[in-house]
Structures are given as structure tokens and as C-alpha cells.
């Protein structure tokens, strides 16, 4: 290992033991390099196609890609039926662990197949056909995964809305996708308490009034709390799905048939419905899961701690693991319920071998202290993964040492909702890993760090001053988004206009190269914040704030935070008649407003009432300067400000 001046290794090569058994070898890079499209054709063959494809990629209408042209495939068949047909029906697909201790359930692949068929039959009875949209607003219960797979089986697009989102956020997503059915639960457990969820669905639908596209609401009983009920529209899962037939013949869909929509924050207040399609998405989900996590379906117990409300849950709880036929843990609750031992207990209980989580949680564990981990037997772990934001080297080392006994590889995986699956990551068993770097693009993937004009940056020095640039994806990839629901123009503008002449996708992240040509992703350089790995746009929060009657104007920035990566800091100007209101009360009201409009995760850490906002002569708010203020730094260049003195007042408000 190469050591840094502080005596800790700066790079971790794979152990010979791990390398000897790893799925990936260095030859994978060579193979992809030699013929990229042939390489992807081979990866697609890991799946079972009803009709073979005739062309790997059609990029003639860029940036609208077609992958595996002419191929027909059923995603649910690939995630469930084929494992049963191969004789693995008795293998546990899901070790489900409820939030209340002792509330657990094992589901085999054979049982999962029956459940998915039942749900598919029920959805068909409700009148859904291929191309329709269903909103799924559920906690981490097995039925949520069943619901997603049932949609996939029917060619119906699911739009999973994180159950932590508000009724108002749900309403906007139902409306944009024109979802005909909403699948939900009566309530969800949150730190030992049952809280309502169905009531939020009703509120969302009511908000749509006459225009509501929702014909039915299918409700899973989870907490047994009381729910409001609309006869005729609302149906219980246990009275419909549970009684449906377990026979259902899957139909194959075109490789480019849309599989799902997933809404994510962009730089405006309106979330984007990211469209993913069938063959390419499943190919890359399955391929990356197999090689990056070195999956051995016969012996591994995989655990991705994400929620199905985010893309990580889609790709590494549902489609990746299930397409590979592995056994996985799905946990319903939060890491601290009933206490901070929970994740360690779950790892111990199921013998988890591969654990995939987010840096913000690793930093939380660090805060709780390593003694906690040392009380548990974590020796089953053989590989660790990280995703969601740049991982600081200290957290990376702590993770490897405390979780991994200083033996396990750690893979830092860079990707996005839009990329659908992992793009940049070390391959365990092949690549050296440097703490804090996602290393290099996977075989078959092409990424570059470039300057303003699209020139590739030079290789950086380890600790010197390195140039930073834009992270771009310069070649199409199978799991790439195919557009934004209902807004092809926004798709072009958002991702393909920055380097339009080159035909590159701009990811929105800044990055640099390290001394060995590896990539260091530095985070978003647009107006998107990353709060505990959750993506929230400054514009969304601003629009929630100005929705309050007292607020005339608002500016929001993400400031560095030790725990959550970034924290939301808001600066608001009050309308004249509100200037008299008790400031503390107003700040409380505003935080509640954001929580109600978006989600509690979007609540600002700080709200400052200011007399003015710093603006350029053209009226643009200078967020860079607000970030300086929020992070307590000396101000950067203020020469383009109309009135530099506004900062005296802003600082006084802090
Ligand atoms: C943004 C995408 C990918 C699933 C979860 C987030 C940041 C993600 C890393 C990483 C540095 C990362 C980027 C990216 N990000 N993973 N390993 N290193 N940054 O998906 O909500 O679409 O957010 O998360 O800024 O653009 P998302």
C-alpha cells in the first residue's frame, strides 16, 4: 500500500484472496475497450430475452437512444420466474425485517413469484394496461417490491414516490404522470410510532379535484391504524391481491418500452419525471450489481440500505439483486430504532455479506462510536459500498476498519437517477481504491473531466493544486434516461446543451483527476443540493418559502455540513406588513411550510430574515456569496454586486 505523509494508506489494492475469487478480472476492461457494443451485447445475454435484439445501439436520433433494438423481454420474468424455473424457488429472495423488533418475514423466490402474479392479476382487473402509470407511495414493506414488479410484468410504468414526501409533493407527481392507480399503506412505522400514509393520499387526490386521474387506491394494511375510506375507489390489498390467482403469463415488451418514471429535483421548482426503459436499464442494473458487488447468488446476503423511493432502491433493491437471483435483506425502519445497534444486529442475524449505504449514515455511525460495532460479530461482511455523495476519506477508512475489519474492499459508486445504474466505481478484486475517489468508469462506460471548452483536464497531483472541471459522459450507456416525462425539450436543455457541439451528457457534477488518472467527484455545481444523499433543488425550497404569505423573496443555498454533507440555509425578505411578526415564530412557520410542501427532509437548517438579497445588475441572486456567508467565510468577489453593503445587514442577521 502507498502511504500518505500521515502514515495511513492512500491506496488500497485488492487482497490476493479477494482477487482470486472475484467475478471481475482486468480482462473486462480490455474486452469493453476492444469493442464496446459487443461487450454490452454480451452483458445483455446475462438476461433472458423472449425475442433476441437485432442491433445493440441506435444513436441516430441522439440524445434519444435505443438499446437492444428489436429485442423483447419481460423484466419481472427475469427477476422472478426464471430463478424458479432454474430450480431456485426455495432460495430466500427477501429477508424482510420490519421496524418493530421481531416483526420479520422471509420470502422465497417461489413465493415472490406467486405474489407478483397475484398483484399483476389484480392490477389487470382494475383495468390497467401497458403504458398506464401507477403511483406507489409506500414504506419499505415487501408489498412495495411486489407492486413494482407487478407493474413491470404488465408494462405499466410505476412512479414510486418516497413515503417521506408530503401530500402536496405526491399530488404534483400523480398529476404530472396522470396515474390511474395509487398503491399505498394505511400507515407506516416511524421510530416506533404508527403514522398515517393513506390520509396523505386522500389529501393529494382531493387537491386534484375534478381533474384527478386516480380511479383506484389500493391499500396494504401495515399498521392497522384508522384510515379515511372512499367506497368504490379504495380497495384493500388483502381483499383483492391476496385472493387473486397465482397464475399469470408474462408478456414480453419491446426493449425500449418504458419501465418506470422516477421524479427527481432539477434546477427549477418543478421535479422532473425521469424515464427509464426496459432492456438497457435491466442489462446495466444486472451487470453492475454482479460485478461491482461481486455477487455470488448461492451464498451472498446483500443489503442495500436505501429506500425504494430513490433510484438506489430501484436499481439495487429491486432490479439488480432480483435479476441476479441473490438473497437480500430489506429493512423497514431507521438505523436508530429501537436503538443504535439495529443495523449491526441485522447484519449479524442474517449473516450479511455485502452492505451498501450512504456516507451520511457512515458519519452517523462514526458519531455513535465504534464501540457499538465491536459488540457485534460483523465477520460475515466481505464487501462494502457507498453511494449518494462524495465520501470523505476519514469516513471511508472508518467504514473499512470498523465494518470491514480492515479486510473488505470498499466501493465508492458514482451515479445518478438519470444514469439508472452505477457508472464510476472501482471493481473489487481488480482496482486499487483510494479513499474518497470513485476511481474510474466501469468497463463499457465512458466518462471524462473537461474544462469550459470541453478539453479534457490533465492528470492531477496527489495533494497539489489540481484543476477542477465538469464531469461528462461522452458515450451513451444502456441504462441512460430516455427523457423527461412530457418534456423532451427540458431533457435536451438540462443534460445535452452544455456540450451540445460534442454531443456529451453533462452530469451537473464538478470533478478532477487524481495522480493515477482516477476521478474525484466533488459534488453538484448547479443549483441542486445534496442533503444526506437526498437531492433537493434550491428552487423547490425557495418556491415553498415564497408560498408563505409573509415572504416577499427567498434565496436558498446548500452549506457544508459535517453530518449531512450539505445543509439547507435560507435567506428571506419579508413583506412589509409581516415585518412586525415575532421572528422566531415566523421561522418556525416557514420550516413547517417547507416540510408540508416538500418533505421534512427539505426543512432548512437555518432561516435568516434579511432586508435584502445580494444581486447582480441583471437581477441574478449571487448564491456563491450567500454560501460564503452561510459557511462563515470571507466574502469572495463582490464587485458585480449592485450594492455590496447588503452584506453588512445579512451578516447582522446571523
Ligand atoms: C448526485 C445524484 C446515485 C444514487 C443516489 C443519488 C451525487 C452520488 C456519488 C458518489 C460523489 C455522488 C452526485 C450526483 N453522488 N453518488 N459516489 N460520489 N457524488 O442519486 O439523487 O440522482 O443524485 O449524487 O452529485 O450527481 P441522485
From TrEMBL:
SUPFAM superfamilies named in the record = Acetyl-CoA synthetase-like
InterPro entries the record matches: Ac_CoA_lig, ACAS_N, AMP-bd_C, AMP-bd_C_sf, AMP-binding_CS, AMP-dep_synth/lig_dom, ANL_N_sf
Gene Ontology MF annotations: acetate-CoA ligase activity; AMP binding; ATP binding; metal ion binding
| Domain Acetyl-coenzyme A synthetase N-terminal: start-end pairs | 26-79
Q: Where does CoA bind?
A: 190-193, 312, 532
Q: What processing steps or modifications follow its translation?
A: Acetylated. Deacetylation by the SIR2-homolog deacetylase activates the enzyme.
Q: What is its EC number?
A: 6.2.1.1
Kindly state which reaction or reactions the protein catalyses.
acetate + ATP + CoA = acetyl-CoA + AMP + diphosphate
Keyword hit for Metal-binding: yes
Q: Which domain of life is it from?
A: Bacteria
Query: What does the entry list as the binding residues for ATP?
Result: 388-390, 412-417, 509, 524, 535
- CDD domains under this entry? ACS
Q: What does this protein do?
A: Catalyzes the conversion of acetate into acetyl-CoA (AcCoA), an essential intermediate at the junction of anabolic and catabolic pathways. AcsA undergoes a two-step reaction. In the first half reaction, AcsA combines acetate with ATP to form acetyl-adenylate (AcAMP) intermediate. In the second half reaction, it can then transfer the acetyl group from AcAMP to the sulfhydryl group of CoA, forming the product AcCoA.
In terms of PANTHER family, this protein maps to:
ACETYL-COENZYME A SYNTHETASE (PTHR24095), ACETYL-COENZYME A SYNTHETASE 1 (PTHR24095:SF14)
This one is known as Acetyl-coenzyme A synthetase
The beginning of the lineage is: Bacteria, Bacillati, Actinomycetota, Actinomycetes, Mycobacteriales
Q: Which gene encodes it?
A: acs_1
